[in-house]
Amino acid sequence: MTHKIAILGASGYTGAELVRLIASHPEFEIVALSADRKAGQSMASVFPFLRHLSLPTLQKIDEIDFSKVDLAFCALPHATTQVVVSALPRDLKIVDLSADFRLRDPAEYEKWYGQPHTAVDLQAEAVYGLTEFYRTEIASARLVAGTGCNAATGQFALRPLIETGVIDLDNILIDLKAGVSGAGRSLKENLLHAELSGGTHAYSAGGKHRHLGEFDQEFSKIAGRPVHIQFTPHLLPMNRGILATTYVQGDAATVHATLAARYADEPFLEVLPFATLPSTRDIAGSNFCHIGVIGDRIPGKTIVVAALDNLTKGSSGQAIQNANLMLGVAETTGLMLAPIFP
Amino acid sequence: MTHKIAILGASGYTGAELVRLIASHPEFEIVALSADRKAGQSMASVFPFLRHLSLPTLQKIDEIDFSKVDLAFCALPHATTQVVVSALPRDLKIVDLSADFRLRDPAEYEKWYGQPHTAVDLQAEAVYGLTEFYRTEIASARLVAGTGCNAATGQFALRPLIETGVIDLDNILIDLKAGVSGAGRSLKENLLHAELSGGTHAYSAGGKHRHLGEFDQEFSKIAGRPVHIQFTPHLLPMNRGILATTYVQGDAATVHATLAARYADEPFLEVLPFATLPSTRDIAGSNFCHIGVIGDRIPGKTIVVAALDNLTKGSSGQAIQNANLMLGVAETTGLMLAPIFP
Amino acid sequence: MTHKIAILGASGYTGAELVRLIASHPEFEIVALSADRKAGQSMASVFPFLRHLSLPTLQKIDEIDFSKVDLAFCALPHATTQVVVSALPRDLKIVDLSADFRLRDPAEYEKWYGQPHTAVDLQAEAVYGLTEFYRTEIASARLVAGTGCNAATGQFALRPLIETGVIDLDNILIDLKAGVSGAGRSLKENLLHAELSGGTHAYSAGGKHRHLGEFDQEFSKIAGRPVHIQFTPHLLPMNRGILATTYVQGDAATVHATLAARYADEPFLEVLPFATLPSTRDIAGSNFCHIGVIGDRIPGKTIVVAALDNLTKGSSGQAIQNANLMLGVAETTGLMLAPIFP
Amino acid sequence: MTHKIAILGASGYTGAELVRLIASHPEFEIVALSADRKAGQSMASVFPFLRHLSLPTLQKIDEIDFSKVDLAFCALPHATTQVVVSALPRDLKIVDLSADFRLRDPAEYEKWYGQPHTAVDLQAEAVYGLTEFYRTEIASARLVAGTGCNAATGQFALRPLIETGVIDLDNILIDLKAGVSGAGRSLKENLLHAELSGGTHAYSAGGKHRHLGEFDQEFSKIAGRPVHIQFTPHLLPMNRGILATTYVQGDAATVHATLAARYADEPFLEVLPFATLPSTRDIAGSNFCHIGVIGDRIPGKTIVVAALDNLTKGSSGQAIQNANLMLGVAETTGLMLAPIFP
């Protein structure tokens, strides 16, 4: 059976990644693509790498006939998203890739995003889109809020450890290395090739990165008590990929066993053999997340490293995984593409 | 129907690319992988990006039971290949990715590769693997010789122009820009990241590059007279992709029309609108080749630019396309993956 | 003796490169830096890599007291430059890095830059800044027009050959590979790391690139007849460097001997041994230009490859070389820095 | 006064970097260069970027007349170094860039390098080459042991904090990001451009990296008690640069003030304004180290980030700084080159 798909915000990287992946999806058909400022253009002119595909012309959102759409992916900026989703039909299934519906508490949203939430009822309705931990809720949800890409990576490394209590909840640190596509297609000096290639720096350091809102919400929820981690992201001269180096206090063998057991049946989460650590190169372009564990020379200190592709498992691949569940399609459909190397 | 596939020389980049692509191929099953020096290892240990796949353990070639193999891809170095293929069963279908069977004339082989050919009978049997121009012969061939990746790119730009005589055969120049994976996984100082990133240089300049043997053979054959082009390749700090900037004498509109007409029904060869030129970024990881044409300000001079991925359309994708034909599978099967961007 | 220097337009890459080089110049002192939109900021805040230097705060141009300036470098956009330079004191020595004063003929300026020239008297006064060919005129000039970076590279490869007539003037082709800093600090999608890294494409192809105005002017002048070349630039994923692969008709040994003889006493132009070709990696960050010559397999066809750093020898280093001449300082002062590798 | 310099092991990156820097040093003259396997070749053939310099031909070490050498830089592999240095004249001043003389305790050397030390007397004589902390001892030393590049970066961030006791000595963690030139010119698959570009991974994780021997020795010495830190290095797709993200427990303002006070008079160590963090791009090619401090959202947790160029301040620049002291030359001579950007 073919499900009819719309992508709102198709002119950004996550929108294009949705199209790339759906092109190999046997049960999805793209029937509408929106990009307000580029309405009227072909997708091939905006993203020439998609020119071999037969795709609808870009439209304005209000030109789309949603009665013929089974599910919409919404890949718009935060804040804009609230307005757009509020105006969509209330029975339309939606997978949102923005930050707007990730945080349960409107006060937390305002704290991290600097403005009040204007669609609090939708926020209450939304299910957090970390598939492997909200599978049942997602399957029956109407509105799923895709996670932050950094937030997904850190949670894959840490959630089973926090749930089972095998690590010290007061000493968790994520030093994260992120590729540049996570910053989107925005025109900023520090994203220029001339400025970004050949070097690295930290950003949003000291507890300012917005994905901390998700970490706080989720880790505190599963711990049953407040959990606040340290989180320092760095920008790296690579286009795709996130490597989260996670420092915890706990027994390394137990940490490894806990993760391996929890993810044993997960099709996309691969726990590597003990003391083998992942590389972002080995998951690029795919929906896989590789996780490695090693003990430190200091007893009781353990390092968990998780790697995924921010555009795939970190956003658009995750979104399709959730859409599969929402539409009753086998969860891995269209997502088993091998990574690309070199 | 599932065809049983062996890959000889699976520890190099083209071998790994074959595995990556076949992982999405619904009618091929990999039953044997060889890598003499790494025999006994798992493919996941040699290429961790393939760890999600269930693959046979690497073997030595003489350990493979070829009676259970329908077709073998041979991704071994030249010279070695002659010896190996000579020892394989004479009824085994083979798609070779090396240079050993590309040149019809043993003297030409010796001239370009510096040693006599030792399997002249096989060389005579082999069909040149440029699918779009040898489709019928390939479909009934037992042994297909994959083209050089640079040779494929240049031929896609030029063959229809030479065949139809719309350009001057004595003034053809290809200035080619190649990504580094074309050099393979060999350990050379100039392939180190520290030496290769951030700069460019020409190599094998002045008519020394071995792919000139293929250009000479093919262009002279279709022209019915000797055709010798200029060809200067450059090494670029990118992993995948070839951009062939081709300078010819002929009317630009006629050149464009000739290419557009010739490739109108080709699933992988896309002629862009007149005066639009391709980027290697738009075909990375895919089996597509984008071709653009623009006229120079000097009347009668025309520029044709072709872009493809050396590992896919330039070698392993082409190889699968040929294997599909040889096994009676629809030609595009397993090869319609979208490019990856960014 | 110390000469007092102003840099107008210090917030772009060529402005910053001037500061970097002057920091090692024993006879220049920077007394004023302008950047209209960033006036009031420190140079360290705009370019943190310069934070170890004691530099004047950025000003608006009209805040500068030019009576205390011996020479001004003008690193502003074209068109703006005409207006600014027209308003400067008529006895102030100026080295301009823009395109505004390169073309002798106002009609040519209008043709290539799409608008009439508004400072025709200054254009007539300006000396073309290709040091090695206008040394005497530059030494006594008040206003020197720095060359285009691509134009400089191509001229170093070709001028002596055109002057001596050892090549066919009707068959000259430059296929050029340029690093991204040549495009400046402008915010464009195709200059983002995510879009530019990992691939290549041609731009301004077919005879549209503005530096052709310089090629036409200079080559026709020295030939004493119209000379129009083909010129196709390509954008490469590297920050610095230009590689001009130049195709000519002429005897390779004669071409090499002509270049070697002409540049034998030039401190910055190095002709490599015959058949050795340059790499942009070997001149990065320096004022050197490496030139190599090789014969093609087709008799009478020769390839000349020139490599330089667009920000140094292609613009800011050249500018300082000219300023040295204008101020009576030894020409190589401050410019003998070794390239940086890797 | 000109001091006569020999460089032993001139065919590696640190050897070439010594030559690059000494080319601008007004009081050093290179009189001998060794590279055993490349003896007889010119430096220009091994490193074409140095071709503008007049340099001695590469020799075997035993061909050098050390009676005419004032100071030798030794840039050879560890273990080899012990043998070579033992055979040099006992009155020759030596700055060693290898790991062989960094550790005071032969047992520690054997533990980290896997073999007994064979020149224990020289090891006892050697002074640890972290200039800013051993200035007096270095000035009168005959043999100085250059630090590890990672070890230097971490110590610049942490030594003043450990000395003054403003941080918890039992909770120090360095997550380090290193460019690839730190791995040298060795031919390894994972250093190829095709394998290294576009991704990142941790290496020597869990307390296995040899530079921990230096951290342990130095931090324990200045603390007067054992100090063992966590240290996880990562390999990044960049050629030069180390970014050490250091996590400590202590008051952020105090940490910043302590570092700022300690380094106020240091010419190469720049403490950035509070809450400003460094980028490796801003120190590339220079002898500067930028250090930034920011407080975490969790009270009492502080992040110190240090950035330097592994080839310059991390090894060859440091070596020249030490040589200046040993020869009575002003310490910054030849080392004030601005970084290169972009």
Proportion of helical residues of chain A: 25-40%
What composes the largest sheet of chain A? 7 strands, parallel
Q: What is the CATH superfamily classification of the largest domain in chain A?
A: Dihydrodipicolinate Reductase, domain 2
Quick one: overall form of chain A?
globular
Helix and strand content put the structural class of chain A at alpha/beta
Oligomer: homotetramer
Work out the helix count of chain A: 11
The CATH topology annotation of the largest domain in chain A reads as Dihydrodipicolinate Reductase, domain 2
List its salient traits.
alpha/beta, 342 residues, globular, homotetramer, Dihydrodipicolinate Reductase, domain 2, Rossmann fold, 2 domains, 11 helices, 7-stranded mixed sheet, 7-stranded parallel sheet
Molecular structure report:
Four copies of one chain form a homotetramer. With 342 residues, chain A is of the alpha/beta class. Chain A folds into two domains: 3-146 and 313-326, NAD(P)-binding Rossmann-like Domain (Rossmann fold); 150-310, Dihydrodipicolinate Reductase, domain 2 (2-Layer Sandwich), CATH 3.30.360. Helices cover 30% and strands 20% of the residues of chain A. Chain A has helices spanning 13-22, 43-46, 80-86, 106-113, 120-125, 131-139, 149-164, 193-196, 211-223, 252-262, 312-326; strands at 3-8, 28-34, 58-59, 71-74, 93-96, 127-128, 143-145, 173-178, 201-202, 230-235, 242-249, 269-271, 289-295, 301-308. The model of chain A has no long low-confidence stretch (mean pLDDT 97). The interface between A and D is large, with 47 and 48 residues.
